[in-house]
Design goal:
The complex is a heterodimer of chains A (about 800) and B (about 100). Helices cover about 30% and strands about 20% of the residues of chain A. In chain B, the strands form three sheets. Chain B has a four-stranded antiparallel beta sheet with strand order 2-3-4-8, with no helix packed on it. Classes of the chains: A alpha/beta (about 800), B mainly beta (about 100). The structure holds flavin-adenine dinucleotide (FAD), protoporphyrin IX containing FE, iron/sulfur cluster and FE2/S2 (inorganic) cluster (FES). Flavin-adenine dinucleotide (FAD) binds near residues 12, 38, 46, 49 and 292 of chain A.
């Protein structure tokens, strides 16, 4: 089949990202031709600020080098501006006469600096701030001249001013409004920003309107005069008063424009064979000037160009971060408030910290922060998710609790860390390494940073720090994805919820069937989605879906925990932590017979045999004659108990028996992640019920049940769910909560993440308030567990998994 | 010249799975894809020596069980941005019999 022709006009960030997304989805669908007015391949425009500040060179900010275009068979025309679109013949024409035919046209022409229409605007030394050429002109001026004036105290203007000051110029920022960055900041935070920049040597003239630029008689600018008649010297004038979408080309071709090229939710213009993305478009009346929304558009546009036709762009909430080293500010959403909104403000004047949250009813709609932005990603995520924050409103202003997040030297403010300080304790990654990778490799998302540097890729406890570093390095280009739409993995655009819904409603019972139904873009998934799908299928259809061992992580395939040297560990079940002399003797015998190097008592009150060869596993299980303790699985791990009323002089409930009963009843229960339970016999809480997925505490009149605690990387105290009277109720509530978590959590979310996402009220509604629902949940769990058997028993062992071949 | 050693039959390797072959040169992992292609790699991840045979197989790649590097089954190269390579061995399948060469 002959390939269709795709022509792209504008070789910038939004357009090239669209091509990248398209090539991922449909590498062979089009012959692609690209026209760019600039002489460079696609570069990272937002890094022009660090280039100006002398922190990076031009060569470091190229995102796609010429080879990239070659490798993808893209015909690239640099330095060729398209001047005409002949829609009838589907041809575009460049300034120099070059023509190209298209079947689909992609307009990604970006925008240009708005130049104030004042006398003298054409003088030498008057520039906008948009591209490499402008930046080079500024750098050259800084070498020869002294006085710089930046018109416009917005994001771009301040970054330009900062860069020029660092290059030794005497810089004055002229601003029409009464405070800086009025579109992103309120007066308080703007005041703090201005003081910080003044301390760096910048000067400010607020509420000043430019009247005229005055020349030196040789065609170069010499000074600037204001409406009030005052005048200051200016050898360089940078206009940063706004941008204008480049729509002239589209407009002349008769494509409907209204400030930008008007597009639908599928990024199509009024001409169905012409698409548009980036700063040149107007979507639902909004033109965006930051990278994050443009990348969202690129994804949607690529999806339609690839003829998949399922994605929609519904607009973006944007956030702002100023890329000036040492200045820490953040703003997002509607931060000025209005009639329906109210505000929570915290202002520490001496500490230089300011935080304002704007709420509409009980959803967060905007935030401004200065001096401490560590929780900015957390707030921004809530703004994007439209999350109801009623439950946490009282603590909201204090930010997300970072209590107990280990491994980052106790740091939680990235801005105060030096480049040599370690951010990720798991993988030994320093701040400097992350910053360098973001700048030089052109990284924009948390996933990118994880892939390239490994920072936060293991335990994830430093995610907050990495997000801060990312946000302050790429400015508003970083936007955490709204959790509700986040795809399960790179193989699909569907979210966890959508996948689970389809499995339930379409009664999908196998992985291939699910992938086909949901149009997976890989033939057999990846190591991320297959285990998730396997679990979702087993959870939805416990007796119909067939377990797929090849889609399980090795631990669950071998029913033992893989160690760093490839040996395994064996932890037999001891229900409720109770054992017998016979069991201990067998364990001791096995340890000797198989030369087990290490025998350890675990944190969960069990015994661990470490360093077992894989081939010995089935023999050891047979000799032990004890069931699997599931210490390796995303399943019910252990129920930790204390001695309780049977022995303890304080005990008011038989916690040990309660623990045994729970561990027996819920044995073999597959879950989204590991699940730990503890039962204490009185409030002294010796079994540490406060940091378990379900923690039960006996009291004189019954039992208290706590949920969603965590003792791992993120120490979180469990929240009180309910108090009950009887042992049967403990079983029913515990089981119902477990089932709710099984049915609703994303694969690999612990209960703490799950409850944080849905809220404790949601859990209470389903498990506590609605008795019928609770009973139904509990019944579904018991049904799922029907017929489950010990994976270590002989008939369940797949010999092939354990025997090696020889030659 | 390759000296082919008969190792096993195709059925003995689970689709999207692997078996370990013990050899004088060390353990070698034999992988089978969904399309019944068979590949052999030294059973050592280029990162920190993880046993690749224990990983999850998808497409023509395997994810190492220790720190989730993805390794290409055909040439043993780590998938970018990770960098590294593990040794690969020639394999052929004839009449369902799998042959391995240690050359
Ligand atoms: C100094 C600076 C700092 C910034 N900092 C940030 C930041 O921190 N965070 C953030 O999110 N965003 C930032 N931005 C904004 C961000 O860079 C833009 O939103 C983004 O680059 C827009 O991408 P685009 O593809 O729409 O347009 P562009 O990247 O501008 O690409 C459009 C390209 O099309 C070319 N073109 C135009 N017309 C034609 C034609 N007729 N024929 C051929 N080619 C044509 C142009 O020459 C240009 O190369 C910054 C911008 C600047 C200038
Ligand atoms: C007022 C506070 C406490 C009192 C009076 C108390 C008292 C006791 C008593 C009497 C026992 C039983 C000993 C036995 O006969 O075996 C016990 C056991 C234990 N306590 Fe505490 N305790 C208290 C707090 C704690 C706390 C806060 C922890 C841990 C965080 C803790 C951890 C333990 C453990 C691990 C056991 C052993 C439980 C078992 O495995 O049987 N205790 N405690
Ligand atoms: S929690 Fe209470 S009952 Fe249990 S061991 Fe501690 S003091 Fe005794
Ligand atoms: S050893 Fe394979 S990823 Fe680390």
């Amino acid at each position: 089949m002959k390939k269709m022709k795709l022509v792209m006009v504008g070789n910038g960030m939004a357009g090239v990202r669209t091509l990248e997304e398209l090539l991922k989805l449909a590498p062979d669908l089009y012959d692609i031709t690209v026209f760019g007015a600039e002489p460079y391949p696609n570069y990272n425009r937002i890094m022009l600020s660090p280039v100006l500040a002398g922190e990076q060179g031009i060569q470091d900010i190229i995102l796609n080098d010429i080879d990239w275009y070659k490798q993808n068979n893209i015909t690239l025309h640099l330095n060729k501006k398209i001047v005409r679109i002949a829609r009838k013949n589907k041809v575009v024409v460049a300034e120099d006469g070059t023509e190209a035919k298209y079947d689909r046209l992609l307009l990604a022409t970006g925008s240009s600096s708005f130049i104030l229409p004042v006398p003298g605007k054409e003088l030498a030394g008057v520039v906008g701030y948009r591209d490499i050429q402008d930046t080079n002109a500024m750098i050259a001026a800084a070498e020869k001249y002294k006085h710089a004036v930046v018109i416009g105290g917005g994001l771009l203007g301040l970054e330009a001013a900062n860069g020029l000051a660092l290059r030794g110029m005497d810089v004055t920022v002229v601003h029409l409004m009464s405070w800086l960055m009025e579109r992103q900041l309120d007066d308080n935070s703007a005041q703090m920003l201005q003081s910080a920049l003044q301390a760096k040597g910048l000067k400010f003239l607020l509420e000043q309107q430019t009247q005229e630029l005055i020349g030196d008689g040789h065609g170069r600018v010499k000074s600037i005069r204001f409406k009030d008649g005052s005048e200051i010297p200016a050898d360089l004038v940078v206009m940063a008063v706004g941008i204008r979408p480049n729509v002239a080309l589209a407009e002349e071709a008769g494509i409907y424009c209204n400030r930008g090229i008007v597009v639908s939710d599928t990024m199509q213009t009024y001409d169905p064979s012409i698409y548009a993305v980036g700063e040149c478009v107007s979507h639902r009346g909004t033109a965006y000037g930051l990278v994050a929304p443009l990348f969202d558009m690129a994804k949607v546009c690529a999806n339609h160009l690839a003829r998949m036709g399922i994605a929609y762009y519904q607009g973006s909430v944007t956030s702002t971060k100023l890329k000036v080293t040492g200045v820490d500010l953040f703003s997002a959403g509607n931060f000025t408030g209005g009639n329906e909104t109210n505000q929570i403000v915290m202002h520490d004047v001496t500490g230089g910290k300011y935080k304002k949250l704007v709420l509409n009813n009980n959803t967060l709609v905007g935030a401004v922060m200065y001096g401490d932005t560590k929780d900015s990603s957390w707030y921004f995520q809530m703004i994007r998710d439209g999350k109801n924050v009623a439950e946490i409103r009282d603590q909201l202003i204090f930010g997300q609790s970072h209590l107990g997040n280990a491994g980052s030297q106790g740091q939680n403010l990235a801005a105060t860390m030096t480049n040599a300080m370690e951010v990720c304790g798991c993988n030994g990654v320093c701040k400097g390494t992350i910053v360098k990778a973001i700048k030089e490799k052109g990284l924009f998302t948390l996933e990118d940073v994880r892939k390239h540097t490994k920072a936060s890729a293991s335990c994830g406890s430093c995610t907050g720090l990495v997000e801060q570093i990312l946000a302050s390095t790429v400015g508003g280009a970083y936007a955490p994805q709204a959790t509700t739409v986040k795809p399960l993995c790179d193989c699909t655009s569907h979210s966890h919820e959508e996948v689970r819904k389809a499995i339930r409603e379409e009664k999908l019972i196998s992985i291939p069937q699910t992938m086909t139904f949901l149009n997976w873009n890989t033939t057999n998934g990846c190591a991320k989605c297959r285990p998730a799908l396997n679990y979702y299928l087993l959870c939805a259809w416990p007796h119909e879906a067939k377990d797929d061992p090849q889609s399980r992580f090795i631990n669950e395939r071998a029913n033992a925990n893989i160690q760093k040297d490839g040996t395994f560990s064996v932890v037999p079940r001891m229900y409720g932590g109770i054992t017998t002399p016979q069991q201990l003797r067998r364990i001791a015998d096995v340890a000797e017979k198989y030369n087990v190097p290490t025998v350890k008592v675990t944190g969960g009150q069990r015994i661990d045999l470490l360093g077992v060869k894989k081939a010995d596993l089935p023999k050891i299980w047979a000799d032990l004659d004890m069931p699997s303790g599931y210490a390796y699985a995303k399943a019910l791990r252990t129920v930790k108990t204390c001695v309780g009323s049977e022995w303890c002089r304080f005990g008011v409930q038989d916690s040990t028996q309660m623990g045994i009963d729970i561990e027996r009843a819920f044995d073999h229960m597959w879950m989204p992640h590991k699940f730990k339970v503890a039962v204490s016999g009185c409030p002294r809480n010796c079994a540490e019920s406060g940091i378990k997925d379900v923690g039960i505490i006996g009291v004189e009149s019954g039992w208290e049940i706590y949920v969603a605690g965590n003792g791992g990387i993120k120490t979180v105290v469990a929240q009180f769910l309910v108090k009950v009277k009887t042992r049967d109720e403990v079983m029913e509530y515990t089981g119902a909560f477990a089932q709710l978590y099984r049915e609703e959590a994303h694969y690999l979310d612990r209960t703490v993440h799950y409850v944080e996402r849905v809220g404790l009220d949601h859990v209470k509604k389903h498990v506590v308030e609605n008795a019928a629902n609770r009973k139904a949940l509990y019944a579904r769990l018991l049904d799922a567990l029907q017929g489950a058997t010990n994976p270590w028993s002989k008939e369940n062992i797949n010999a092939r998994e354990f025997e090696s071949l020889t030659i | 010249m390759n000296t082919w050693h008969e190792v096993t039959t195709l059925e003995e390797i689970p689709p999207l799975g692997a078996r370990v072959v013990t050899t004088k040169q060390g353990d070698i992992a034999l992988f089978r894809t969904a399309e019944d292609e068979v590949f052999a790699l030294l059973d050592r991840c280029p990162h920190k020596g993880g046993h690749l045979s224990q990983g999850i197989v998808f497409g023509k790649k395997v994810t190492c069980p220790l720190h989730s590097w993805n390794i290409c089954l055909d040439d043993g190269n780590a998938v970018a941005p990770d960098v590294g390579c593990t040794r690969s061995y020639p394999v052929k399948v004839e009449n369902n019999v799998v042959y391995l060469s240690l050359a």
